[in-house]
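Objective 1b. Sequence-to-structure analysis of DUF3558 domain-containing protein.
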Amino acid sequence: MPPQQGWPQPQPGWGPPQPPKKNKAPLIVGIIAGVVVLVTAGVAGFLYLGANSDSGSPKRGGTMPEACANVPAAALAKARTTNGNPAMSKQRKVPDGTQTSCAWDQTNGEDGSGLRNTDAYVVVGDAAAEYERRVSQSKQNNQGTINERRLDGLGDEATVVLVDGKSAFLQLDVIVRKGDTVVEVEYTGWDSGVFGNKRPDVTEFEAAARGVAEALLADA
C-alpha cells in the first residue's frame, strides 16, 4: 500500500538504534599476551630441562686396578663420578716401585648434570721427589690463575692447587705424600646453568677431591 500523500517519507538511517560496536583491541591484546607468556614459559622450560638433564654415559663393566677398586662408592658419589673407566686405569712398574692410574666419570642417570671427571695417580717409590715433582707440574698449568695452599690432616704433607680461569671450567689437584706413597687426585668440571655453564663451588670441589685422596691413602 503506497504511503499516503503528505506523510513524511522514511529517510536513510532511520530505524531502531543500533548497539554500539565493541572495542576488540583489549581482547586481541590479551590473546597476544597469553601467547607470549606460553611461548616464554615453553622456552624457559625447554632450557631448564636441557641444562639440568643427566650427563655421563651408561655404566661400564670391567675390572679396575686394586687401588682404584678400593675407593668406596660414597666417595665417588660425592665426587659425582661413579662410572669407572677400566680402559684408562692401569698399574705399571716404575724404576723405584709402582704407579697406578685411576679414571672415573659420570654415570648417566646417577651423577646429575654438568661435567665431572676424576683422575687419580698412586705412586709407590721415591715419594719425596715424586711429591715435589707433581706439585711443581700442577702449578705449571697455564689455563688460569694458580692458587696453592697446604692441606692439614692429610698424610705427611699435602697440597691443593686450584686452576681458576675465566670460564666455568674448574680444575683442582690434591697431592699428598704419606710414607713412600704419593697420591694425586685431579678433579675437573663445571655446573650447568639455564643460559650456559657456571663455575662450581670450590669448597665442594675440594671436599670431593680430598675424599677420593683419603680413600686412596687408606692402605698406604
